[in-house]
Amino acid sequence: MKTIAKCAENLKQELIEWRRYFHQYPELSFEESNTSDYIVRVLKSFGITDIETNIAEHGIVATISNGPGRVIALRADMDALPIQEKTNLKYASKNLNVMHACGHDAHMSMLLGASKLLNEEMKDDNLKGTIKFIFQPAEESANDEGLTGAPYFIKNGILDEVDAIISVHVCPWRKVGEIQVNEGPSMANIDNFELTISGKGGHGGYPHQTVDPIWISSFVLQGIYSLISRKIDPLHVGTISVGELKAEGSKNVIPEKVTIGGTIRSYKSTIRSQLIKELEAVAKICEAFGGTFDLTIQRGEPALYNDAAITRLMKKNAKRLYPDMKIIEEPFGMGGEDFGHMTAVVPGSMFFLGSAFEEKEFQLHTPQFQLNEKALPIGVAVLTACACDLINTEVRREADDN
Questions:
Q1: Residue 66's closest CA among 120, 134, 121, 122?
Q2: Binding site for Mn(2+): residue ranges?
Q3: Are 196 and 377 within 8 A, CB to CB?
Q4: Which fold has domain 189-299?
Q5: Active site residue: 85, 139, 178, 183, which one?
Q6: The model's pTM
Q7: C-alpha–C-alpha distance, residues 51 and 84, integer Å
Q8: Which is catalytic among the residues 32, 77, 79, 178?
Q9: Quick one: which of 88, 186, 187, 324 could link to 337 by a disulfide (CB 3.0–4.6 Å)?
């Protein structure tokens, strides 16, 4: 294990070079053509030639094999965010209003590092079986069909023969040398909603002649905000947040319609269904006040479910590699992660890698986001060690009480 850590540390300058290239040339979801070309060039420089491209537009699967055996997959996301970078770094984004503000540049670099080390292990006949390196586009945004990148890999059969899958996400609220893990649901189911309340508009001086959708929406909003405290078991995780409230009126004009938009977050599928059902019941308040409504639910990513056995294996390997490593065991939060599509069909797990600076913490999805590159070799080492362990270990999915 110490050898893996040392080999990963020896890759540090390459990891930084790869990461900074990706950071300078970020691309949005389903537009990662230059990113894809660069990854393929680097993989081929390792001697990896079994490379499938153009999955979900620009996705990549590189495969290495050494005889029969288990099939393991490692995954990284590729896309950036529509954010104008404000870091003043020498390697800041050169693409206007596009930035790697969620660490996907680091994820790709760490997966390249792991692919290099694991390919060398197979060449030396130290591993038997097959390893797939999945570079997945479009984790951040869905297309017109409502799909992000992960479902396309599943539809294409990429995971059909895979026995286990692992991934890493940078964690700017943890120090370098720390990782955060969690067994079971670890990031949220994501559903967005749009509720249009229709009434009868009119003159602001004669409200009695209208069916005021703004007035109606005040009761609907109270109902939405009370759902979690009065309808959901306090021991379960779930929330509804309103982020949009739109009406096309003016100071003396009562509008015809009001639109309320927001997001629904949960960990368990039962709570996910209950929240949608309760939201539909709240929307019916409109009818009691003479209005009508139209409620649209856009189903998003499923909750990220981390397999317990694989998560324990991650902890074991992290401690073997770095005996002083601090391991924090708690869920990752109410954000979404489309890796959840993959762990829903294949036993898998993601760990969060501490990447904070000592003097300052940067938040994900912000124009100022930065990460500590000292974390990169640690991520490579943990991914590599886990892959070596998994390819020799049968994983049986444990019962899911979701």
A1: 122
A2: 102, 104, 140, 169, 365
A3: no
A4: Alpha-Beta Plaits (3.30.70)
A5: 139
A6: 0.93
A7: 33
A8: 79
A9: 187
